[in-house]
Amino acid sequence: MSARTSITTRSEPAPAGAAPDGRPAAARAALYRYLALAFSDPATGSAKALARQRPLAEAALRALRLAPEMAAAATGRHSDLALKRAHLAVFGHALSKDCPPYGSEYGQAHIFEKTQTLADAAGFYRAFGLALAEDLHDRPDHIAVELEFMEFLCLKQAWADSKGHSHGQLALCRKAQRNFLADHLGFWAFSFARRLRQRPDPGPFAAWAGLLESFLAQELAAAGIARHDDPFVNEGGAEHEDECACGPCPAVAFGAPAERRNDA
After folding, report:
1. Is 41 a domain residue?
2. What's the total number of domains in the chain?
3. How far apart are the first and last CA of the chain?
4. Count of alpha carbons within 13 Å of 255, Cβ hemisphere only?
5. Nearest to residue 262, comparing CAs of 200, 178, 196?
6. How far is C-alpha 130 from the chain's CA centre?
7. Tens digit of pLDDT for each residue in 149-171?
8. Residue at 12 is within a domain
9. Among 85, 155, 229, 258, which is least packed, fewest CB within 10 Å?
10. Cα–Cα separations (whole angstroms), residue 197 to 67, 90, 235
11. What is the largest CA-CA distance in the chain?
12. Rounded to whole angstroms, how far apart are CA atoms 52 and 31?
């Protein structure tokens, strides 16, 4: 897995398990993986990684019955240079306040809420024995990290299903997916995607944002989670622009879980 966004490592091939609603868990994992690569900070080899994942993402789109025309738009070919230029044009050098790629920048009116959200995201990862890669100098609420965690949970579900694990173990995987979508990715990613598409020159990110919206809408519907279309972007964030921008905040080491946002 990409060292730029990795929260774990994997060497086994993805199993072909299926979720109770008939959607293949491995196909969902493949699409989460592709989107994690698409939204990660581009580095040397990013284009090749996307190219390798492209056929799996296209197969996943077919398996999940998402719009076939989306595959051509969202899984096109790109060079490392093109990815870097597009990323810079959309996100800039500093923390973008137009479409920040961090979950705690959405719907958090106070710095303590932001810290709580960071702590809760890190707590999800620790609960499954995961940690941010040592060379990832970023926050646990980055869009690519949250997408990759969902990939991990889907693969875990598919693996448990393929090995005939107990109903309780499968239920644990599904519960973790639902809670993480409700509290984190599913809460803010629609607003992120909409804002990203409204950028003056979003380049390939426009198609990736559209794919993210369509896929997450399907994910939330299957999990019975209400969609949050547009949580506000934190006000007064300019004075905190560099806060936690270069690495995980020390406060995320330990923290009590945040309240379920969908129950608020």
Report:
1. yes
2. 1
3. 35
4. 22
5. 178
6. 15
7. 999 999 999 988 887 777 777 88
8. no
9. 229
10. 18, 9, 21
11. 52
12. 13
